[in-house]
Amino acid sequence: MMNTSGRFAGQKALLLTPQLRENDTHCVTFHYYLGGRDSSHPGHLNVYIKENNSPMGMPVWNVSGSATRSWGQVELAVSTYWPNFYQIVFEAVTSGQRGLLAIKDVVVQGHQCMNTPHFLTIKGVEVNAGQTASFHCTVNGRKRDNFRLWLQGIGGREAPMKATKPWNNRRFIGTFDVENTTKGDSGRYRCIVHSDKGVGVSNYGELTIKQPPVPIAPPQLTAVGATYLWIQLNANSINGDGPITDREVEYRTVSGTMYDLQPVDKTTHKIGHLDPDTEYEISVLLTRPLEGGTGAPGPPLRARTRCAGEVKHTITYKAPLGFEGTCA
């Protein structure tokens, strides 16, 4: 119990349970109290669920408002099981007004909650940056109109429920999309469901955001003809993530509109059917698994094809630009 009288707004008190290592469905119940004079607002109570040794993350349940002078009961349907463990953290935050905030009778019951559903274990998701990550949360209970579901990230990002579909007559699945993902969205996410009597909390699933690969260096020119250019991809060093599943060579004329993209299965590649005495810009594109896995083109190489027929003037080579000279 915390007496909020004489305290500044924003002061906090924490009550932590022991680490709970449950190996079957169970329900945690507790009673809470907000007391004070009529129309006073003594503060608010937050409940956090820490899985293993993770940070506290975001609250899964909270209450605030006017003093009620009566005890309320809350169910916590926590779906974290052995060998994982969790800890419940009760947080009282003062408002600066007089009153009492209290918690009592924290009980672990060896059966499912009566009014709040549990989740089945959720799995992690991997996507490439810029894509949509979809989490599927299976709720062990019939869908009710008073259920409110969302996806909660440990760093604060949330996603509303996109859709639900029945799994059988006792379960349904909620789908949640984390859109336009960036590396900053990587981390742990869990499903939350609120009922009139409490809150259901799933385990955490890891969201892994991979960056499509981009070569650090331009390709290297190895041979020049009037209608072809031989290059070495030079794409072993990359920015982004592997593994590399596909390679492509993109080339275009420096002056004009000619453009082509060719798949490559070796570290060297011949670009043929080119125009003589024409300058081209050549880049390498790399692809990793999953949708959206193709990175931006790497740094370009500029190279010019030789003249057609006999060359009557001196030819010089300035790596990596290729042929330089004048065709007669």
Describe it.
It holds the Pfam family ig. Residues 215-308 form the Fibronectin type-III domain. This is Receptor-type tyrosine-protein phosphatase mu. With 328 residues, this protein is an all-beta fold. The chain is built from no helices and 28 strands. The strands form six sheets. Strands 1, 3, 6, 8, 9, 10, 11, 12, 13, 14, 15, 16 and 17 form a 13-stranded mixed beta sheet that branches. A four-stranded antiparallel beta sheet has the order 2-7-4-5, with no helix packed on it. A four-stranded antiparallel beta sheet has the order 23-22-25-26, with no helix packed on it. Strand 12 and strand 13 form a beta hairpin. The model is unreliable at 310-321 (pLDDT under 50).
The gist of it:
It comes from Champsocephalus esox. The chain has 328 residues and is mostly beta strands.
